[in-house]
Design brief:
Number of strands: 0
Largest sheet: none
Number of domains: 1
Amino acid sequence: MSIIKAFSDGWRKVWQTRRWLVLLFVLQFVLVLFPGVALREAIEESLGKSLAAENMLRSFDTSWYQVFLKDAGKLESTFGPQISGAGAILESLDRLVTGKLAGIPALLFGLAVVYLLFWIFFSGGLIHQYGFGEENSFFALAARYFWRILGIVLLAGAAYAIIFMVLLPFFSQIVENITRQTIDERVHFALTVVKYLILWSLVVVVNLLADYAKIHAVGQNLASPFLAIGRAARFVFRHFFKTIGLYLLVAATGLFGMVFYLITAPGATHSSWGMILFGLFWGELYVLWRIFVRAEFLAAQTTLILQAEE
């Protein structure tokens, strides 16, 4: 079993299925158009033909923004300079790392669920083509495995809920109890780092088990999500260092793309039409890159399983 070979073969297989990944990208783009149009109308109504509208053409008008927030609903309140360029990623990372996902508007949460269902549907077809042949149509394969993968995702979602809704508050309380009488901020910082290392190690384990369970459900035709997770756990812990190594290698690739985007993406201070259009194009290209990286996890992990069976 070679991690590098699985990694490189995975990218080759991802490129072969690029049309399905581009279709998934188009579907998510259509989904975000709905809240985007509603948000545009709210901003247009607030700005009108005011001086603030002229100011926004040159730079972000913070005075108008404060007034806009006072009457903003949950969807409108998500608008701000932080959603452009690097700010969009940094805010998302902050919510993800700290588990603060409760403040997401219901509309956006619903659209995220729909997008997740799209991914679940596509995953079965992608995994089958990555390692188990290409017979039948892609959509027939996706439909065949949809409910099996959905069961695995629901179990993984329950595990994530326990991590962020039970374990995160529990460990936070422990850190607070230990540092209540401590004035040295370094102690609090160190314990906080340890807390998140433990929690995100658990997230990685759940993510690994879920991915390999999906692959076993497809490759071994397993209808039970519990049996698929059991097979995945046996494979992951039997080949622990290789599965973790491959996971970290693909994750590093995604991290490299994220850092590159953070460095190059224009922010809210750029007001020329050229930079605005470039920012939109660059942002959507980064979204497509993330879809390809997510597919690479499945493709490379499928290849690793096939190598182990040889």
